[in-house]
Design goal:
About 35% of the residues lie in helices and about 25% in strands. By secondary structure, it is α/β, with parallel strands linked by helices. The protein folds into 2 domains: about 170 residues, VC0802-like (2-Layer Sandwich); about 170 residues, Rossmann fold (3-Layer(aba) Sandwich), CATH 3.40.50. It is elongated. The termini are far apart.
Length: about 400
């Protein structure tokens, strides 16, 4: 009898934790798909986020392998919050602070949303810190220090319609920072957004991929890393490694699992970028090398006009300047006009994907988009435009 009860105990599924993935606006649906593919349950796309449930092994896996989230939040406590007093009391009871935050550990607080009398995130964060520190002083007579750069515990508070949610941010810093991009162009595309754009394009790693205006190379690097299934988070330190219930054996098992998925030896088709500015082309090459992809991604210095493309099919992707941060009107119109002409002359049978924040400029392509996917790029309202080149 004893043996059978032990057997039943072992069959209990691991506890699922309620979580939130913070995602770029426009990538909520494919972000949810990615979470599901990596084992998350009950996934629901939200605005700039997706809610899901995950056991601890899955949450570790998502930190190591997910390419699209900015952050992964583990929800720890919900409480009514209609002002400062509610917030103070709720925070003091939200966590077993004796277990989670010893005074020898540092912490930081991030806040989203508002409540009555709590309209400014900086002020609200200060109220959370005061509540935590007062609780620590009650327990130990001493307090933690605040560390905005590399805290041991990353707290995230969300206020919405009279409710507060306190979460732990396992990421430590935004997950879009892969670590390969020390060198950046003038208006860099975030790595997770680049990965999402490649995924939306439908490129699957079997046909050539060319970026005629590659800048610091982010679209190409993310594409190659995705095709080789290189884990996005393998080379970084995560805040969750300081959690009170961190399980090193389980973490190492997920790290090995992530490493095991990588197919570094896979021969990829041509992945190539052109960059007219030689110093930016050098930056792109440095980024490619830092990502360990110098055998998969080639950066050529010079204007795209000077380069031929292989026979189709293939995919052109680019994030040309759209005048918000870099570039001037008439110069940009001629750039888009040239890009449209180049595609028609050299890329028959290819797909062209352009990230545009300026409809007037994309009109200069003289091509008709077959798909227009709304995307927010650093707060700029953009469209990820698909053209069939004939």
């Amino acid at each position: 009898m004893e043996h059978s009860s032990v057997g039943r105990e072992h069959r209990h599924p691991p506890k699922r934790l309620p979580c939130i993935a913070v995602l770029p606006q426009g990538l909520e649906a494919i972000g949810a798909d990615e979470l599901s593919a990596l084992g998350a349950k009950e996934v629901k796309p939200l605005r700039r986020a997706a809610s899901f449930e995950a056991d601890m092994a899955c949450l570790y896996r998502l930190h190591l392998q997910a390419r699209l989230p900015f952050r992964l939040l583990r929800e720890m406590s919900h409480f009514r919050c209609n002002g400062r007093d509610d917030l103070y009391d709720g925070i003091q009871q939200a966590l077993d602070w004796e277990r989670w935050l010893h005074p020898s550990m540092s912490f930081r607080v991030d806040v989203t949303g508002t409540a009555p009398g709590l309209n400014h995130s900086h002020f609200t964060a200060l109220q959370v810190k005061n509540a935590v520190i007062d609780r620590q002083r009650d327990l130990w007579g001493e307090r933690s220090s605040i560390d905005l750069e590399e805290p041991d515990l990353n707290l995230h508070l969300h206020l919405h319609r009279g409710e507060a949610t306190l979460s732990l941010d396992g990421s430590g810093g935004s997950l879009h920072r892969r670590g390969y991009r020390a060198a950046m162009g003038a208006a860099p595309l975030k790595e997770n957004l680049a990965a999402g754009l490649i995924r939306l394009s439908g490129w699957d790693g079997t046909t050539p991929l060319v970026d005629p205006l590659c800048g610091s190379g982010t679209l190409l690097i993310e594409a190659a890393a995705m095709a080789l299934q290189l884990p996005a988070g393998l080379d970084r330190v995560f805040a969750l490694e300081s959690w009170a219930d961190f399980n090193l054996d389980q973490w190492n098992a997920e790290r090995q699992r992530a490493q095991g998925r990588a197919c570094r030896e896979r021969k990829l088709p041509l992945i190539q970028g052109f960059e007219a500015d030689s110093s930016i082309a050098d930056q792109a090459r440095a980024n490619v090398q830092a990502a360990g992809l110098e055998h998969s991604v080639e950066i050529k210095t010079g204007s795209f006009h000077n380069f031929a493309l292989p026979q189709g099919p293939g995919t052109l992707v680019c994030n040309p300047p759209y005048g918000e941060r870099i570039g001037a009107g008439s110069d940009l119109e001629s750039l888009y006009s040239d890009l449209g002409r180049y595609a028609k002359e050299h890329a028959s049978g290819w797909a062209l994907w352009v990230l545009s924040g300026n409809p007037q400029l994309t009109g200069a392509l003289r091509m008709k988009a077959t798909r227009r996917i709304p995307i927010s790029n650093g707060g700029i309202d953009c469209r990820w435009l698909h053209y069939d080149v004939r």
